Records
---
Amino acid sequence: MKITFDLSTLAGTRWYEYGVRFLFGGAITVIAGLLAKRFGPIFGGLFLAFPAIFPASATLVEKHEREKKWKAGITNTTRGRQAAALDARGAAMGSIGLACFAWFVWKLLPVWNAGVVLLVALSLWLGVSVLVWQASKKHSRR
Amino acid sequence: MLITQLIFRFVVGGLVVTAFAALGDVLKPKSFAGLFGAAPSVALATVGLTIVAEGKIYAAIEARSMIVGAFAFCAYATLCSRLMIRNRMHSKYASTAALALWLICALGVWAIALR
């Protein structure tokens, strides 16, 4: 399956939809920091992988797909929910990459330069996530 | 934690999370774009700040717990997808209700193995 960029979707996103993500993203970053301060890094670290903006993102995906179908004159559609479910499946695959990111940072941050560790860990997240996604595509084609 | 540090965390976290979400918006197919829903955006925003404030070892300990959080995220996202497809649940309700599973998984492992 071909991976494409569609920049027109950015124009279709309203300013408050970015605002909601900014608020949730900012809030979980602060909350994770406060929890680590209050209960220690072992507890606070859990929240670095909290799906804080996922509910907002999934709702937006469903809404945008439904609106697209309505504009095309199709009012009775399950496409929006299906798109959100696919988005969630992708996130499940991405979370395996997220675990690899965290493992790499845990193991190498104390001994390597922090910038290099974060850069390599980010590449590892992307690489593992894409590999898992490709493997699942191949598996579903069989 | 100082109020200025909290504001800085909020702004940096908000910007990084929004940037990854916007990247996910422009990508197709949807299952591929979904990968960006599990981007390490909060970690990228906080690790640098944590290193400056608390040191590398503290940040590495947080990352170890993050592995547990990531597997809880996997269970959460899988449940979301199932609730939307099999139970025909609206994404808003499915993704909010499933947060309970993330909390059970993450806090359960923390209570049993990490604490």
---
Amino acid sequence: MTFEQILANPGGLFHSPTLNGPDIYVELPGTDPRPLTILLTANGCRIASVFAEDRVAEENRYYVYYVFDQDSDSRYLIARATISTAEPSFVSMAAEMPALNWQEREIQDWFGIAAEGHPNPRRVALHDNWPDVHPLRKDFPVDTVLPPFEGEQHVLRPTLGEGVFQIPVGPVHAGIIEPGHFNFAVAGEPILYLQLRMFYTHKGIEKRFEQLPVRHAVFLAESISGDSAFSHGVAFCQAIERAADAQVPERARRMRTILLELERMYNHVADIGAIAMDVGFVVANAHASRLREMILALNEDLTGSRTLRGMVCPGGVRRDWTAEQVSHALGVVQVFESEFNSIVELIESSDSTRDRLARTGILRPDKARDLGIIGVGGRASGIDRDVRRDHPYAAYDTVTLDVPVYQEGDVLRRMQVRIDEIRQSIVIIRAVESQLAASPFCVPVPPLPPDRCALGAVEGWRGEILHWIRTGPNNTLSRCKIKDPSINNWPAMVEAVQGNIVPDFPVINKSFNLSYSGTDR
Amino acid sequence: MFKILRKTAQTGLVTIGYPAAPPVISPRYRGAPKFNFEHFNDPPAAAAACPTGAISVTSTDTSGRVVVDYGLCIFCGQCAEADPSIKITQQFDLAVRDRSALVVTADYSPDSSGSNFELKHLQYGESPSDLEETVKLRIRDVLGRSLAIRVVDAGSCNGCEIEVNSLNNPLYDIERLGIHFVASPRHADMLLATGPVTRNMELALLKTWSATPDPRVVVAVGACGISGGIFGRNYATVGGVDRVVPVDVYIPGCPPTPLALLNGILLAVGMMEEKGVPR
């Protein structure tokens, strides 16, 4: 069903549907999104994101936006609730939709709009020792220097029982990874309950976007999550291009596709190696990290940066490739493919590795659906979603995508999804390269008209990345909302570790490999 | 088991020679931008192109000043697009011991015709060639000893962590130099700190530093670790590692490549003796 069919008989659920570019916007009659949400979710839609915007200076109100998507419609539906400035609040849906838990609390912290009826309305994005500020309000200057924070009073939920004790871990972890706090409640070896405390790397990115001209903001988008620099960059540029009605030339769209797949490959192969290492198969990891290095070196040759920075720009890409570069890239992919196959064979031939990975860290499909899990973690648990196929962008409309989906939801299947996706990336790169016709690699983007709203969506290697913008005057942004797939998927970790032993936590964590910086922004 | 051994034998040796041998670097790698201060085409255009304010220009009728801060540079190459007199080089070994050594100041005054500015004074914080010598000397020393590093992510985007992790892969194989990453600051000689230091990580960074036995060496990694980078100093960030703990070596980059990191770590190792670490 298309959104038009679902919304044919609204019965007062919303008014004034407007088409803004390829997406549908509707206005909610009040601050309660539940009636519309019930209708949409009953018809196979899901909520991809919820976020707020300060329009007090212009319209004397706040808005809260709900982004919906569904299988059979390539557009997004964005519902908007108007929030008054007097005691601002909106109706929470976090009790029914755990995926919204942190996103709703973010709105509370950043905008001072209360999430009415939230089951756990405590601070999340600003820690408990912050003063009472709402940094994303327009009247809060970005360079405010807050006084030193006193005391640390975050209270974790107590876990009680005979022989039950708690293991606090982080924010500084033992490995070379990002900071976050995990609190395990254990009885003997098995984990009973995991509590997360995140946002240690919150660095004001969404506010910072409002300060930079668009041409500089692209580099900020590349720094949202360093291992997804290109995906976030493309999502941002797509939003800009849609706001400016700019058409990206074909060659640029194909080049973007190739680089997006290279990003997927270097991250997936590293994760496959890391999963093997976390169960003791060190040699497999040495080979996998050698393969990752192969792609990173190729990235450097194609873009000047090992992590694909400084390449994407609104209107296309910043530099073209010579025929030699392209054939070199194909040569590297060829070598990569045969090496990758032999390493997968090595891992698959190890019964002890398989034994440790199968039935470890299970996320059941029904749980994954209830929690709104997406990306690699979702596909290993029966969630058949992929932005590349469902909302095609770049050159993905020219390739057929066979999305790997498994039902078992364990670490082994999350690794298998990555293996399948790398093989598919190779197919995509070859198909797209063969059509890499001569055409401009970049077109100038006209000056951005103010007050245009647009959404950019990309399937990063972790899953769905969304950038929603409202343009401001003189090629600036008045709002940029970033949704990294990680913020949807942390609840999956909490679910998957339960009943597993503490020593298996690292491999379960690695099998999701979520971005802390993308979550915290 | 035989499959594993066969694969290892087939693969052979992949480790690079650096620092003993010069590294192989792609000619397309975007390293340090090189400025021709005598014939700087268009400093205002270069400054406007820079997303982090690494190039700043101030001028009056009678004088002009251009300040280039490599500690803010994210190596995007936009300045060279705006001003062809700026050349992107493949230089990666930019690590310094002094923050001011990353800053170049060029002063200009009008020439005799009065219509053009000419270069009057050029000041580098520290001579890069001296630095190279220091590194080379220390490289020889370091091969004889071991170093334990603890990495602290103080709010980075994870870009620097990717490249620090690369140091452990078979190509860079940092353990061949006696350098290894350890799980606790209590086991560490050196802290490698990344990120603009978020307010939420400020205390954790300080505690980690306090837990590292003295003498300790602190290395600030990447544009963010040095200066806050593209995030700058805002309500949620402190704007650089040295605003929280004393820093001994700065490694520019966004993110610094494994070679740049290796260069910086080896530079810092030369400092261990100064701080009283017995050899």
---
Amino acid sequence: MRSDPSEYEMASPGTLAGALDLLRHRPGGWLPVAGGTEIMVQYSAGRLGARRLLNLWGIQELREIAESDDSLRIGGGCTFSQLRKHPAVRDHFPLLAMAAAWTGSVANQNRATIAGNIVNASPAADSPPALLAYEAELELISAVGTRRIPYRDFHLGYKKTGLYPDELLLAIHLPKRFAGWFRYAQKTGTRNAQAISKICIAGIGKLRGDYVEALHIGIGAVAPTPLRLHKTESALLEVKITDASIRDALRVLASEISPIDDIRSSAEYRRQVAANLVEDLLRSFAESEQAI
Amino acid sequence: MNRASFSFRINGESKSVEAYPMERLLDVLRESLGLTGTKEGCGEGECGACSVLINGELVNSCLVPVAQTNGAEIVTIEGIATGEDLHPAQKAFLACGGAQCGMCTPGMVVATVHLLNRYPQPTPEQIREGLNGNLCRCTGYMRIFKAVEDAAETGSGR
Amino acid sequence: MQKERIVGTSVLRKEGTAKVRGAARYIDDLSLPGMIFGATVRSAIPRGRILSIQFGDEIPWDEFVVVSAKDIPGENTIALINRDWPCLANEMVNHPEEPILLLAHADPHLLRKALDAVHIEYETLPSVHSIEESERGDVVVWGADNVFKQFQIDKGDVDQIWGAADFIVEGEYSTGAQEHLYIENNGVIAAFTREDGLTVWGSMQCPFYVHKSLVAVSALPEDKVRVIQVETGGAFGGKEDYPSMIGAHAALLAMKAQRPVKIVYDRMEDMVATTKRHPSRTRIRTAVAKDGKLLGAEIEFSLDGGAYSTLSPTVLSRGTIHAAGAYFWPNIRVRSKAYSTNCPPHGAFRGFGAPQSLFAMERHMDRIAGVVGISPEDLRRRNFLRQGLTTATGQEIREAVDLEHLLLRALELSDYHSKRERFERENASSKKKKGIGLAAFFHGAGFTGSGERYLNSVAAMDATPDGKIRVLVSSTEFGQGTNTVLCQIAAEALGIDYDLVEMAPPDTSVVPNTGPTVASRTTMIVGKLVHSAAVGLKQTLQASGFLGEKWTTDEFCIAVKAHVAKYGTLRSDSRYEAPPDVYWDDEKYRGEAYPAFAWAVYVAEVTLDTISYAVTVDDFVAVQEVGRVLNPVLAVGQIEGGIAQGIGYALYEKVQWEKGRMMNGQMTNYIIPTSQDIPPIRVYFEELPFAHGAYGAKGIGELPMDGPAPAILNAVSQAAGKDFNTIPLMPEDICAQLALKTVSLEAISV
């Protein structure tokens, strides 16, 4: 344990209003912590810069999941265990349930929250690819009110997000319009469980006859942020999936991603596996029978 | 900073500690409460040697600030047996060779109890998944899987 | 064979109840009144000279105890084989994380801040970071030529065979470092008073090794130094040598502080600063006849030993002797060297050199099979050692071992032939390629050559006042079952219940020196000593008239109490006697290398995913001949655990080095298999009782480490249609080989 607990302050207001009030008085001066599966690791290793922590664990308003006819609202404080078990997540957003199931271990899933996963902004995080594919919208809240932004506009650069210093990620909104769509997700890690992704991908799509009507692909660990493969998708819209169009799409993919060498893997590996995964996704897509 | 008072129930008993809010639950258990059965293997939430139950959920206590446990029901390895009587999971670990050096064992037993509470008759896949956050370097897991299967057979979900 | 009551059954682990209750007490669970904490200031550079040490103003240094090399009363050495391993660096440092200063304080948080407040200026010198760099000799970092030790084994006349060979097959094979990753990190507590002397408690395998090192460092007389092993959470060799270092550190602080001192490493410090398995490079050149008969081989076996020699000579020795594999070579030369590089010294790790050289030989056998055009199993079958044939050191195999039978059994149990054929057929059209591979091998149990004679081990048994029997040995429990098996043997030999026998604490002031708990010797050799001590005890009781011809456990207990009441004590000692006709030449490295070998054939079935290039092991069959299984559950547990470590060694565990520093010193980045990564492992034993082992037992602890990596790589090479010869074999490595193939196919079809 490489940090001195006596140097850290933790405020536990217990309510959302209380938390927002603290943030209003000292924007950027409090580091919100919910499950702690990221922050406490840094703390134990003596690498946590912040000294004031804002305890969000147990604030019930952040842990609710509400379903309406056209969308699902997931509270930022929902844990991965909650997500993978919730019937509406499994039925309507199965790739998010899958991502939750392969993040960390059972014990990590009981504590790690979706807001923490998003705001921590690791490019290798497991849930962002699915959230990008499902065109999630984030609801951010401060003492002065709420605002919504498309999730795809949230990541501004490596570990830089559009969250203002006095804000919390209140909820994630997912539109229920992908019933019957083709779906595909893969995580490539260092082992089968408890593995940080070397690369992770989530894709959904719809065919009209033989032609691609819609295609959303989210991918992690190949860029400074989680990435939606807009250019690769565009290369395939209104196109038949063939060996040639796949080859073209992979060429676009190569220009769209920028993987790096790091402690877990190499740029070359990520580049090759990203291509393999997108190719596999597209071939599965072409062969899929979509239920209406 | 100042210490504060935190209260919870540990293994069925009400307890109160004076601690800094960012003290790890693991350290509060081991040092303030003398419950040394819960172990530190890595301090990064990877090995599961520090596993405990908080409000029935399996967590790594090395990643939990004590401030977040106020009012919680905590179960540690010391609370798994009932006095002299071992829990069926503990008996099975003994009979099947599920413990070798014993360092992962407290966390592994707590994870097993957690698993059997959720799935009293777990499939092999559910067993492997239920223990996927508890690393063992000695056994190769096989005797542990057998112990979990045997414990399930004697009907131990409680 | 006579049926035993206790030996051969799976009695419960002696200390098992405490372990499953969480009541077993490891070193970090213990504290002493007045105890303070110690920490280590370590080198930031791989090699150089310390120019200055500054202590930052922000720390109240007058509250601290600070120990440097100058404070060492005795020798500044952790003595293992050579005396080159400094306890604390004086002026020169030779590896990152080398210990320089020791600090102690009552507040562990302030202690950590103090570590960060020590600023050391160095003059950096050139350093060496691979076997190749070290052997080039441009930069000499140890001795005259960077070579810690070398061996040469010669049998027959290898220079004459090349002309007659139908095939000459060459190959180069490499293995990486491996971290033990015992779940309990290294830790000790030391206490010193002038009256009682020095006492060190800790997590360790060999209390008398630690004792020897402490005597040298402290300059105290032997009877003023006491070492006590406490419950140890895994070791695998990593606590054979290193505890002497951390023990000496705590002792020095305790002697200067006049207070007990605890040093417990956290995971990162343990990973980056302590010993690992020696990386290796093996080059093999073999002469083969067209029917697959092995005519001869030249093997060059090299180890990276790190900055100081520590145990490299003996690791090299074992690797050298095992390099020839389980085959009969009429002619063979093995030349081996252990090189110095500037990383933390490598040390003992289960297998101790054999996993490295056997990996090479078993990969090479598949290569030979491919060149000659016969199957891997037929090649092996034609060349196996068997009774009457001699090993590379000229040791005649005296037992009726039947490797062909083990092989056939393993192939049958794994459904090898039909799977291999099916995989070959189906792989072409599948994204998931499958492979099945085998490895045949042996492992010598006990110390090499005259080692056991030199150890001259003593075991004893005595009685407690309440009539219980104690086993007094320095052999320690760290999960492998020492306590259980030795109590089983004693209970069997005495004709009493297992519950009446207990282990005396592994305390150097209480137990005799039964040798270190290493080399797969405990059951076989120490068990035999316990057996004879028990027989001696029984005879003493019979001679004194308290015990008749037959007895129940209760009657035995009464007899013991009566004897102790009359004579004051009841004790029996037994000293090691070497078996007759055992001959070993230390100069020429010829003769009976080991008292016994265990033999095995392992089969691994794998899937290679050509999308992610990840390999998973789907099924694993392990067949071994081990003398006698004294406790089936414990024995199976040893094999399964060793196989899991072997799977990690082959596919997951990569140490990322940067100029001698381990960069991935966290469990999140140094990957061992989880419960979801291990295949079903099926273990089968054959038994040819070994006359000189307790109840016929041979050693088995290290055997399972030798087989998995080559079996897996043989399987992956089949699946991929490409040879892989380096471990750990990561998906990135496979991608680099296979992706090339697909790209070039693309170019062709365009």
---
Amino acid sequence: MTAVRVLVGTKKGAFVITGDGKRQKWNVSGPHFGGWEIYHLKGSPVDPNRIFASQSSGWFGQVISRSDDGGQTWTTPGSNPEDLKTPEGFPKGESNKFVYDTEPPSGKPLTTHQFYDGTQKPWVFKRVWHLEPSLTDPDAVYAGVEDAALFRSADGGKTWKEVAALRGHGTGPKWSPGAGGMGLHSIVQDPKNPKRMYIAISAAGCFRTDDGGASWKAINKGLKSPYLPEETPEVGFCVHRIAIHPSKPDVLYMQLHQGGGIYRSDNAGDLWQEVNGNLPTDFGFPIDVHAHEPSTIFAVPMDPNLRVPPEGKLRAYRSRTGGNDWEPLTAGLPQENCYINVLREAMAVDQLDECGIYFGTTGGQVYCSPDSGNHWHPIVRDLPGVLSVEVQTLA
Amino acid sequence: MIRVVIPFHLRLLAKITGEVELEVQPPVTQRTVLDALEARYPMLRGTIRDHVTQIRRPFLRLYACEQDLSHESPDTPLPERVASGAEPYLVIGAIAGG
């Protein structure tokens, strides 16, 4: 018997939704961390019952929580009674301590980034946007944070250390915040090459490491951003999301800000080509890849000015050719008076034989298509605004 | 015994119901009370005071005996009625948001 577990982060708590293999019957658990903004939750590929969660609040700052029982119970790593018994001694409560590395190569003199008004501002930690558990080690997890930087924990989230060479790339003074802040939101590990990883920052662009994080290369050639003064800048792009298929990790897909749209790279990001084709707009936030068809991708275009579905019709789009040729997917989705948004973290796919596609909306709905996008139904309709959706496929 | 009241969201985080009672060795100051609170509940570290600077988070205020102590030195002794346990030390979240 197979099942799926949908991890939903919202503006007022987390929800863990389990469904059977047919994805017709659902059980909703939550809210967990009621009242806290949950930017992201994600389970370990090595141990699916281990789930990391990013809680944040304008009042109380950042908290990292972890479940080791599939989301039934949660703790803040390093703050539990059993930690008193470890050789590490008394718990230090440092699971929410994200301190920028001020040593070379990331720190001095690279301590500022560009602000909205063009002035330079110092890096200030605000929150964790994205948690990416290691593909091989259940205790290892990456965090993408605002102001943009990459952190890594090697102890299950108890402590964090910056992957310093990313900010040490040297282009930091040209990175700037998007409307939602300057966040590192996409972390993509290459399953075939443990030394290779991709990250994306809004608004800086994409970067790739081929040496396990020791050095980084900006990979933004071919992207278009008419709002930037230079025609082909190295950085400054408001990337909304990147995704790969694990069988073809050199093929990257991207949703870029308006003026750009959907892009594909066939060479690990060295060069991008625009593949908007017949999409109704070039704006949107999430992009994801079918679990079993590496060239089948999904996006949810939005009106670039209003950031709502064009014509009030909620349509996901599917391309089976890696972009350019797109078909609208509407069955089961509202086709009138729909003015929600779908945020960058709020789309995911499952791994069942008939791939399921999921997305959550700012209106609190989570939609599921159990047949690769042909038909949709809402799992839940009235959650707080959805910030993130991840799906685990359980044996 | 020092009595401390913290906001709902932090009680949820620390799995606390009601007031917290703490043993605090003199001097009883905001710093020593918060240090004792965080020692008992390590998950609260960084949520009331910044992890590194130890500065109060801007949307929190600190009260006792109908006095706003938010801008007092963290090392100023708390009122005797707090030190004796007659009055609680209050960590209050800004009443804002939706």
